[in-house]
Amino acid sequence: MQTGTDYMAQATNAVIAPFNWLGGLFVAFIRELGAIAIFFTHAFCLIFSLPLQVNKTIQQIFFIGAKSILIILLVGLFTGMVLGLQGYYTLVKFGSEGVLGAAVALSLIRELGPVMTAIMIIARAGSSMAAEIGIMRISEQIDALDTMDINPIRFLVSPRIVASLISFPLLTAIFNVIGIIGGYLSGVCLLGINSGIYFYRIESNVLMQDISGGFVKSLVFGIIVSTICCYQGYFTHMRPGGFGAKGVSLATTSAVVLSCVLVLIVDYVLTSFLL
Amino acid sequence: MTAPLIELKNVTKRFGNHTVLDRLNLTVFEGDITTIIGKSGGGKSVLLKHIIGLLRPDEGDILINNKRFKEMTRKEQTQFKRQTSYMFQNNALFDSLTVFENIALPLREKTRMREDAIKSKVMAKIDQMELSHEVIHKYPSQISGGMQKRVALARALITEPKIIFFDEPTTGLDPLRKNAVLGMISHYQKKIGFTALLVSHDIPDVFFISNRVAIIDNGRIIFQGKPIELEQSENPVVHDFIRGQINLKDDLTGLNTKQEVMDLLNQEMDRANRLQANFPVIMFTIDNMTQINKHVGYITAQRIVQCLSTLLKEHFGAAGTSARFSQNEILMVLPHTDIKEAEKDLNELAVDLQKQEIFQAKSYPKACLSFSVSAGLSETKQGTDTDSLIGQALSNQKIIAHVECIKQGETA
Questions:
Q1: Is the Cβ–Cβ distance between B136 and B99 less than 8 Å?
Q2: Over chain A, what is the mean pLDDT?
Q3: pLDDT of B360-409, one tens digit each?
Q4: What's the structural domain count of chain A?
Q5: Paired residues of B67 in beta bridges
Q6: pLDDT tens per residue, range B265-278
Q7: For all residues of chain B together, what is the average pLDDT?
Q8: Taking CB atoms and an 8 Å limit, are A139 and B92 in contact across chains?
Q9: Who is most buried in A56, B22, B139, B241, counting CB within 10 A?
Q10: Within 10 Å of residue B27's Cβ, how many Cβ atoms?
Q11: A interface test, pick of B15, B88, B158 with most A CB neighbours within 10 Å
Q12: Is some CB atom of chain B closer than 8 A to the CB atom of A50?
């Protein structure tokens, strides 16, 4: 027979359970972030251990940076063109289509440049970082490095972090320039804004502060993306419920999802500090 | 005796609820080849990974040169690590690096050797491993499994380590290469003088190169000592283990082991004595087995045994239990049959056997081969023992099928 206290206990449980679950999820998320932070510190310190891994870093810059240029050019051009188009039709209502250049340039330099670049690199290089390191983990190649007394974090992660720190700002800069040209194409060549006004507004409105803000963002995104993608691959074997190829696929998925989400969250936080 | 180089004391390791190593003790001496044998999944690889420090024990100590591993300073641990090499079960070659880069990696990362010195050293190793020079620019996935093994061995040897751990170095190799790899390990061990710790289940091949053998079973070492001590060991578990591995070949012919049929025979003789009932046994012998092996090969010899065992099943069915008694003898026990019936069945078997392709001389066009199969029947009597019963059967043997040598040009 059920007593009143039993019933109370059950009811309380039913109310608490979802919060328990939610809390557990949150704690797990924070723990994961903590582990990632430690992982990053470790890898970052090992960047400076001698001898410097110049060759491997250059290879990674080639892979993360140079090979991403084409896709960045394409995406940047069309982002700028769309901005020009949309901006023109909004601004023309207020008769202020002359500031189109400033609108396009500021939104690119402050926001879209760093964020879109980061997301494109996640898709192109981040996923492959996670998959490559994940496969090395499951085929015991990382253990093999360990037995040769080669620090796997130094060998695999540090060059990728350096390469990201160099590639991200450069790619962002390329994205911004090509985006502004895209805006020029749609705004000036298609819709007939005065070309001198377009560039004059950019010159008078974009401050050094905007550019350095975008630069800081791209550096932070570079750290986030490379660390999370390497971390997910590196600890593929610790992942519950996924082994072997399945584990690698899960690691790649969560590397892409987690770094995209974190890039957008951190973007908001940084923007609110930089403004 | 020299002091032990590596000593494991009461090492326990659990993965979740599953105890992989259970208070395990093992001693490895310097300059020896020590082989750990055991069933798959018995914790052999886990044991190796403990010694090299990839895994930490839950309980117990690992002593290196009489010093506890966990009490060693970081520098000492690194120093120990630099003296060791590990050859992984699945090679663990870096699949995004070429063969050359794989072998050169430990030198490039851990020494300050010049590039041309590294190159000549790697090429020397590649020649030693009998790898062709075209292979060096290929990636591990482009070369065969046997070559991958040799590349892995080259990578393990390139740093001239003092201790090398081999995790099943011969698995997945053909018999020739298997012997070549074992020979290579033994050869370099003598030449360079490293200490080797092997994990294998290539019994008895590994015994020839090992100085010490340890058997791991259910997470514990049930035997460790010299191979010769192993063969003379009285420990029944050890015996069963070794025989279990060697007798695997008889599973292919569908015959039971000698032990099984002897147990059955003893049991049935007890019963027959009690019930005053007699039953027959038949002993089959393949004569000239050595000549068969020599002229037409081991496989044909095995096929003759297999053919005989298949026919035995067809003719005697469930009534008889047959076993490989020795290399060329098959003993059959027929507990619920009388001798008349057995004789009738045996005559039918003889006719059938002679008709088999394998007993036609023209099946062996290239060899002049004569061999025969004899069978002898005997019956239990009150008070006889197994030895005299089998002796009786052997003395009653008559030829039931034979192949005569044909000289070239003649026809059957």
A1: yes
A2: 88
A3: 777 776 667 777 888 888 887 777 777 788 888 888 888 887 777 765 54
A4: 1
A5: B64
A6: 787 788 777 777 77
A7: 78
A8: yes
A9: B241
A10: 18
A11: B88
A12: no
